[in-house]
Amino acid sequence: MIQWKKSFICAAEMEHAATAHRSHNCTGVLTERRVEWSMSDFEIGKYIGEGKFGKVYLAREKQSGYVVALKVIFKVKLEKYRFHTHLRREIEIQHSLDHPNVLRLFAWFHDDDRVVLVLEYAARGELYKLLRTVRRFSERTAATYVASLAAALAYCHKKQVIHRDIKPENLLLDIEGRLKIADFGWAVRSNAKRHTLCGTIDYLAPEMVEKKAHDHAVDNWTLGILCYEFLYGSPPFEAAEQDDTLRRIIKVDLLFPKTPYVSADAKDLISKLLVKDSSKRLSLDDIMKHPWIALKNQDYPRNGEPTWFFGESI
User: Location of the Glycyl lysine isopeptide (Lys-Gly) (interchain with G-Cter in SUMO2) covalent cross-link (predicted)?
Assistant: First the structure.
C-alpha cells in the first residue's frame, strides 16, 4: 500500500492567490496560521463533476468562508489502476505552478479511503461544454483563449513542465470567464525527450503517434488543434475510425473548409503550429506576436492578459 504524507499550506497563501487572480467567488479573511487540512474543515456543497478516480464537490472552508473545489479521489481506484505515481506527480507539478491561466492546487490531504485535492474553483466550468453549446467561437474569442493558453504554456515550459493533454475538457473558466488549464495527470517535469504515449487521440502530435521521442513542442501542436476546433467546431484530423484519425495526423492532412469563414491570418497561425517537424513549429513567444493574436487581443501586451468575451459565438 502506498504511503501518503500529510499536506500543509499557509492559509495566507490561499488568500494571496485569490487576490492575485481577482477571484470573486471567495469570501472571508483567511488566517495566517499554518494548518493541516481535513474534510472536517470544509462545508461540502453540490457535486460539480466526476473523473475516472473520484468526484469533485463545491466546498467552503469553515473558518474563512473561502470557496474551493474538492477533488475527492478514492484510494481503491488508484490501487486498481496503479495510478498513484501519476497522482503524486500531478500534485507535485500543479502545486508548484502559480499563473493566472493555470488552475491553482492549494493543498491536499488524505484519510484511510480518499486523497483530497483542494483546488481553485472555476465557476463557469469546462470550456468543452461552452464550445458544444455555441458550436464554435468568434475569432475574437478564439484568439483570446489561444493567447491565454500560449501565456500559460510558456510559463509551464519555463518551469520544464510539459502538459501533454491539453483539450477542451481540461480547460476551465472562472467567474470572470478567464481560462484555466487544469488536470495535470499526464504532465511531466523534464527538459529531456520523453517516450510515453499519452493524451487524447484527436490531439496527439505526429511524433507521439509514431512512438518517437517528444518534448514541449507537443503542447504547441495541441494549441494548433485547439485553435482550429475553436473556429470550426471540431478537431482538424477527426475521422469516423481511429486508425484514419491517426493516419491523418501522421500525414498532417490539414484541410480548411470553405464554411464557416475563417480569416487568412487565423489559418496561417494554425498552419504554423500544425507542422510535422516539431522543431519548426511556431514558438509560444511568436504566437503572441502573430498578427491574428495581436489584432484580436490588442490589450494583451500592455496588461498581461486579454479582455474577456465570455464565450461569444458567431
Answer: 167
